[in-house]
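Before the break, one more example. Copy the sequence into your notebook; we will annotate it together after we see the structure.
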Amino acid sequence: MDHLSSEPAVLTYLDHGATTPLRPEVAEAMAEVTSEPLGNPTGSHRPAQRARRLLEEARDEVAALMDRDPGQIIFTSGGTESANLAVFGTLAGLHRDGSTAAIVCSAVEHPAVLESCRAAALEGAVRLNEVPVDSAGVIALNALTDLVDVDTQLVAIMLANNETGVMQPLADVVEAVRRKNDATRIFTDAVQAASFVDLAEQTRGCDLVALSAHKLGGPVGVGVLAEWMPSGIAARQYGGGQERERRSGTQNVVGAVGMATALRFAAAEREDAAERVAGLRDALAEGLCAAIPDAVRTIAPGVATLAGHLHLCIPGVEREELLVLMGERGICASGGSSCASGALQTSHVLAAMGVADGLSRGAIRFTLGHATTPGDVERAVTLVPGLVDQIRQGS
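Here is what the structure looks like once it is written out:
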């Protein structure tokens, strides 16, 4: 009882980049799936046939929203598995003759992509080149072009950065890579961007695209890897040969329905939501920067970013201490990547951007989304500056 009474009465959730709260419509759709017996999609009886129908309807919907064919949609357990399958599956599918293979990725990729690329380079005869970025975290296109050669089998450039929200010039990337080596596969991590962009338009020309449901208001534990066949991707998970031999294992039908539903609502609301959320984000930025004059808005206005991202570096503050104090008052944010927000090491994204280590120690990522309200922004603007002062005064 004491533990419960210590919980904050008000929750101000500004961590949509880590996990976006489940949309009520998604919860309803998933509940409807389980309202009747649900079998294994590979079976032949009625509950199994129902499961297979629901799975394929979800696949059809995701494919249509991404402007892909249904056969190009692979359901996975989330963005991390999609990234690993994209990297290792591509190399296994194409690199069979013992020749040198090369991967190119940006220096600011999500750990699921960056560490997969680095592991691939350690495991086999694979050369990895990381593309530098400028002070805003945007890749250097000239450097990318120079790094792509006849051996380059995979280029991995994210659509938008998970920490800062910065958008990469993906259309220019596709054009540059195709000009240098038309056989190179292009993979983009669109996990963070999917709520706010037209996926079909923004990922056109990419061979592989990763999504994750819980960044869209869908359930945790389901994702998608869309591949533009024939990509030559090879399975990394073996068993019953589900997902057209590319990802074995009994499919998460309930999760797939949740994924499709979340993607549908995100697409339908995208333009209005982006405008509304960007306005709230800007109000949060203005309020916090006015109250904390030496706070640095890591990405300057004018740089293309996702509508919901606000990344601040606050001098004289350790991010973990501030996050704890914020959490005690029900204000939810993170210190960077949701996969490493509890770690004390310097963000590889900020390091690649040239942000000084002392400044990056005070990095805080606020991410807004479909559930964010003006009241959330007002409460954060009211409380966070006082917590910063408390830390600086050593209280």
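The two ends are 28 Å apart (CA to CA). Residues 24-264 form a domain with the Aspartate Aminotransferase; domain 2 fold (CATH 3.40.640.10). Try to locate both features in your own notes.
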